[in-house]
Amino acid sequence: MAVSETKYIFVTGGVASSLGKGIISSSIGKLLQARGYKVTIQKFDPYINIDPGTLNPYEHGECYVTVDGHEADLDLGHYERFLDIQTTKANNLTTGRIYKSVIDKERRGDYLGKTVQIIPHITDEIKRDVKLLGKKYNFDFVITEIGGTVGDIESLPFLESMRQLKWELGRNALCVHLTYVPYLAAAKELKTKPTQHSVKQLQSLGIQPDILVLRTEHDLNANLRKKVALFCNVSENAVVQSIDAPTIYQVPILMHEQKLDETILEKMGYALDDTNKLDLTAWEAFLERRANAKRTVKIAMVGKYVELQDAYKSILESLSQAGTYNDCKVQIKYISSEKLNEQNVEELLSPADGVVICPGFGSRGIEGKFVAAKYQREHNRPTFGVCLGMQCMAIEFARNVLGYPDANSTEMDEKTSHPIIDLMEEQKAITNMGGTMRLGAYECVLDKKSKVYDIYGKEHIQERHRHRYEFNNDYRDAFEKAGMKGVGINPESDLIEIVEIPQLKWYIGTQFHPEYSSTVLNPHPLFVSFIKAALNK
Ligand code: GLN
To answer: Are 252 and 82 spatial neighbours (Cβ–Cβ below 8 Å)?
Structure first.
């Protein structure tokens, strides 16, 4: 094996968006990692926003958060879940961030009077960001997923940078292009023309893809692959299909069955020998357990972004992984918090074995979350509140147990006489939206007499945050006396990070987002325990 420099694999997409570039990138990463290589994955997003933090989840799905507090594209969630690695700010760049960095340099005079242009200044900046990641952490492979679709105006600088890098790095760089092969039902035929056009488009930019991954809903026979290889100037073994799979976690196996990992290694100058043998034992054991799961657990997710699955992507994946580790399938039902009320709550929530009260921002649908928290608490049913979900649990408790009818978060009602959830004093002074967010991993110390301590099996944990408001410690005593305990505390700020009602079977709320750190091979203990409680409710 032994090739010492970092290798760069670019993943581009053509024909249509949403073909699963993130899953293909993650699957390639997984296979290389399972051969003993140190791998990371990076995503370039061609939009002007500095980061996706300000994007509406309806448009772009969930905002993922890295340990170092970067608000990132949800594909980074796939990378972490597949590879069991932690990504950072350096793993996600946008056009906005690249331009900002170049413009800041220009203002500082770094370009010494030169005319600042897309080529070479923007492209150099992109190339620097690609290479920096490899160098800084000594990776064997850096996989760079280029967002958008070939042919978009926005992706041009990224593709040009990739062309240059391929030229400069020779065998140390490789392009995997993902396209779509549609099936025309009337003609009963699979069509490769869109793929040919998409490859032509790449070629017209000076890029010859090395490997083609064809997304399809039907099996592609050898003749069709041969034809694609011939028309697109790639070797036959470098045309692989990505067919619909029962679970995304099956994709690395499907890619390996077509020897995608071997083809990549060979093309990049590696010999296949004992030192880089594939070991997917743990991954396969997970898939087997998943396929053999017989029971089903029903989980209701109460939130306001119910139309778009991707808005709660990491929670969904965490629940589904936790299901596998409990040998059950997880059936999810979305309940719109805007539609949930005292009259329909029994009908909507009673069929569920457990309820997740979802995170979110703003007051829309908030009352429905209080209704869910109340129903679940009063009926002693497994309930997991995440971030805003935890805040709603606390507010509902204040209203209906402590007897403060207008208790609220100042995010929803600035004039409430009981601001159970509030901004910290120092945050109140900051006006910049992004500036007040608590982002990234923070320490938390667990109460040794709590359920969460038993669940984690340790006292000190670190979890990722993404919120502005906090539990107001003025109310801590009243809550604890009435039975809702702060069982996870930030040692530095003394802020409450976890609440639970010890008298109930499973009624836990976390100010942080445990879903960001649940991976296939290391499912998050809170989700595993929650599913177990739901199964045994
Ligand atoms: N809106 C709440 C806050 O900012 C909760 C945020 C969230 O659920 N991520 O504190």
So the answer is: yes
358 Cα to the center of ligand 1, angstroms: 10
- Residue 221's closest CA among 243, 194, 248, 246? 243
pLDDT digits (tens, 9 = 90+) for 289-306: 999 999 999 999 999 987
Q: Under 8 Å CB-to-CB from 400, ≥6 apart: which residues?
A: 374
The Cβ-side half-sphere exposure at 287, using a 13 Å CA radius, reads 16
Nearest to 284 by CA among 243, 307, 326, 256: 256
Structure tokens, 484? 């809702």
Q: Between these two residues, 309 and 118, which has the higher pLDDT value?
A: 118
> Using alpha carbons only, what angle is made at residue 354 by residues 353 and 359, rounded to the nearest 5 degrees?
155
Can you tell me the distance from the alpha carbon of 214 to that of 14, in angstroms, rounded to the nearest whole number?
Answer: 10
* Measured distance CA(41)–CA(64) in Å, rounded: 15
Q: What share of the chain has pLDDT > 90, as a percent? A: 88
Distance CA 208, CA 163 (A): 9
pLDDT of residue 2 exceeding 50: no
Spatial CA neighbour of 393 closest among 525, 468, 240, 496: 496
E strands of 447-517, at which residues?
Answer: 460-467, 470-471, 485-489, 496-500, 507-510
Tens of pLDDT, residues 303-319? 998 778 788 999 999 99
Token pair belonging to 417:
């006489």
Share of the chain above pLDDT 70, in %: 97
Q: How far is the CA of 313 from the centre of ligand 1 (A)?
A: 17
Is the backbone peptide bond immediately before 120 cis, with ω within 30 degrees of 0? Answer: yes
Asked whether 228 lines ligand 1 (CB < 6 A), one says: no
By three-state DSSP, how is residue 77 classified? helix
Tokens, residue 501 = 């009602």
C-beta of 468 in contact with ligand 1 (< 6 A): yes
As given in the structure block, the two tokens for residue 196 are 């040919």
- Closest residue by Cα to atom 5, ligand 1, is 388
Count the helix, strand and coil residues of the chain and give each as a percent rounded to the nearest 5: 45, 20, 35
Query: Could you identify the residue written with the tokens 């976890």?
Result: 498
Q: How confident is the model at residue 1 (pLDDT cuts 50, 70, 90)?
A: very low
Q: Count other C-beta atoms under 10 Å from residue 529's C-beta.
A: 21
Yes or no: say if 508 and 385 are a contact pair by the CB < 8 Å rule.
Answer: yes
Q: Cα(468) to centroid of ligand 1, in Å?
A: 6
- Maximum distance among all Cα pairs of the chain, rounded to whole angstroms: 75
